[in-house]
């Protein structure tokens, strides 16, 4: 870890640097479209997330921003279209924590995304999702469990992200944090499937994970208006979410410098070399055939 190892001496809230992306620093259009989780300033000032002791990871994040000149870029996906979507509420809380930790967080709204292969991949929502994935340093995936597994809404988003689009790999080498929402008792089926998906998409899934049981009991304003403003109530489950976001930032800081190198594999280098050799042989053959035609024409 070297220079990013933080001091273990805790500081007061006033001494911890404020890393959240401010209105003045942010792009207004991006803030309006991709950051629906943001709180009103007067609410944020006294919010439970603002009161969290996150000194160590904030020091790591601050040092990384200073060293690289850029924030960690995080794409958050959730897996429900319900007005009162607990996976969306959980995604908002995760995003608020990451926002406080200095990340550039963007949430993708899946409501306009068509079913995989029902339209060409030139569809605007598909291109938006792929662009966000390619832009990111890491993902946070939040899905409900339905019939013991992922929801179609969530899986459809992953299905639209290919392993490769030409020379661009939309997910390879990126970090991943996974979260599951349960309507009933706690389960880990969806989390296990998310780990399989993460591995298949060649991502680095962090060891920790969050599974929220009985989601309807764990948020304010049960059965509320779907505005996304209902907050996660205090519990060990809420603390686990904080742990996961802390760990995600630490792993992403460590992995980010090497993200592009994970796409540099022997098999693909060999394939590129062989393709260049075939193209060169074809080019030389075309030249030889043209020279032969000219020679024949000149002798007539």
Automatic annotation (TrEMBL):
Its cofactor is FMN. GO terms for molecular function: nucleotide binding; oxidoreductase activity, acting on NAD(P)H, quinone or similar compound as acceptor. Residues 262-281 are annotated as: Disordered. Gene3D superfamilies: 3.40.50.360. Keywords: Flavoprotein, FMN, NADP, Nucleotide-binding, Oxidoreductase. Homotetramer. This is Arsenate resistance ArsH. The lineage of its organism: Eukaryota, Fungi, Dikarya, Ascomycota, Pezizomycotina.
């Amino acid at each position: 870890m070297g220079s990013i190892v933080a001091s273990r001496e805790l500081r007061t809230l006033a001494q911890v640097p404020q890393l959240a992306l401010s209105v003045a620093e942010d792009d207004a259009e991006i803030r309006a479209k991709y950051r629906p989780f943001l709180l009103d300033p007067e609410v944020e000032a006294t919010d439970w997330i603002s009161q969290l002791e996150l000194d160590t990871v904030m020091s790591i994040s601050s040092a990384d921003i200073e060293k690289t000149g850029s924030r960690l870029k995080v794409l958050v996906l959730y897996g429900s279209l319900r007005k009162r979507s607990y996976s969306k509420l959980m995604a908002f809380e995760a995003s608020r924590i990451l926002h406080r930790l200095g990340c550039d967080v963007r949430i993708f709204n899946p409501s306009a995304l068509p079913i995989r292969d029902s339209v060409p991949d030139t569809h605007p929502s598909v291109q938006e999702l792929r662009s966000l994935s390619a832009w990111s340093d890491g993902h946070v995936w939040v899905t409900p469990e339905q019939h013991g597994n992922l929801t179609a809404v969530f899986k459809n988003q992953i299905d639209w992200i290919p392993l490769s689009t030409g020379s661009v790999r939309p997910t390879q080498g990126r970090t991943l944090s996974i979260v599951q929402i349960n309507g009933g008792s706690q389960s880990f089926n969806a989390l296990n499937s998310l780990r399989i998906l993460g591995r298949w998409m060649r991502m680095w899934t962090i060891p920790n994970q969050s599974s929220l049981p009985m989601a309807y009991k764990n948020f304010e304003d049960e059965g509320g208006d779907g505005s996304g403003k209902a907050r996660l109530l205090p519990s060990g489950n809420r603390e686990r979410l904080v742990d996961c976001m802390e760990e995600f930032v630490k792993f992403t800081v460590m992995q980010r410098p090497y993200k592009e190198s994970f796409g540099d594999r022997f098999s693909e280098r060999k394939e590129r070399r062989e393709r260049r050799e075939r193209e060169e042989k074809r080019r030389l053959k075309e030249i030889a055939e043209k020279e032969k035609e000219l020679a024949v024409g000149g002798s007539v």
